[in-house]
């Protein structure tokens, strides 16, 4: 089993039994079907929701430099997100490693670093006039971006769980 379904199955298997039992009860004892429906919704909605939420970071760029045009803000945001996405995709195979569940925080931390370094590299002269301003605005922008990513992940998880549960109820 591969894809999101395989990854979720491995993560549930590595989960502590008490937490896994909560999901099994919510799924009516049929965790594999729940995971299958969840993974289908996740694969479809992840890029859509993540793009929608992270595009909101253009407002943060507007706080830093109000005279930046909307296309410029969007261009900067997408440039930073592209760097983080490339790094994240390169790290994705590590999530499938059997013992990686305990160190699941490493990949997101490296992506956050990529967001920060990409923003810092291009900030001076665009969203900040000084080096210290570039550092501060890069830190703030990275925090805003990560909060948006986390919020999109929360919304995505809720939608996928709702989809999985309603799909399972409809099948019975």
From TrEMBL:
Keywords, sorted A to Z: Membrane, Transmembrane, Transmembrane helix
Keyword Membrane listed: yes
Membrane-spanning residues: 41-64, 76-94, 100-118, 139-165
Name this protein carries in UniProt: Yip1 domain-containing protein
Species in which this protein is naturally found: Candidatus Viadribacter manganicus
Lineage: Bacteria, Pseudomonadati, Pseudomonadota, Alphaproteobacteria, Hyphomonadales
């Amino acid at each position: 089993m591969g894809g999101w379904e395989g990854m979720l199955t491995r993560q549930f298997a590595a989960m502590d039994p008490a937490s896994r039992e909560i999901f099994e009860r919510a799924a009516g004892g049929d965790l594999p079907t729940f995971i299958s429906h969840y993974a289908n919704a996740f694969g479809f909605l992840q890029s859509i929701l993540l793009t929608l939420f992270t595009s909101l970071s253009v407002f943060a760029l507007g706080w830093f430099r109000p005279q930046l045009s909307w296309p410029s803000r969007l261009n900067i945001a997408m440039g930073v997100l592209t760097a983080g996405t490339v790094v994240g995709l390169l790290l994705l195979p590590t999530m499938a490693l059997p013992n990686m569940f305990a160190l699941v925080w490493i990949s997101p931390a490296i992506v956050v670093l990529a967001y920060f370094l990409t923003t810092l590299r291009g900030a001076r002269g665009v969203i900040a006039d000084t080096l210290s301003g570039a550092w501060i605005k890069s830190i703030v922008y990275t925090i805003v971006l990560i909060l948006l990513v986390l919020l999109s992940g929360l919304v995505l998880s809720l939608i996928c769980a709702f989809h999985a549960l309603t799909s399972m109820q409809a099948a019975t």
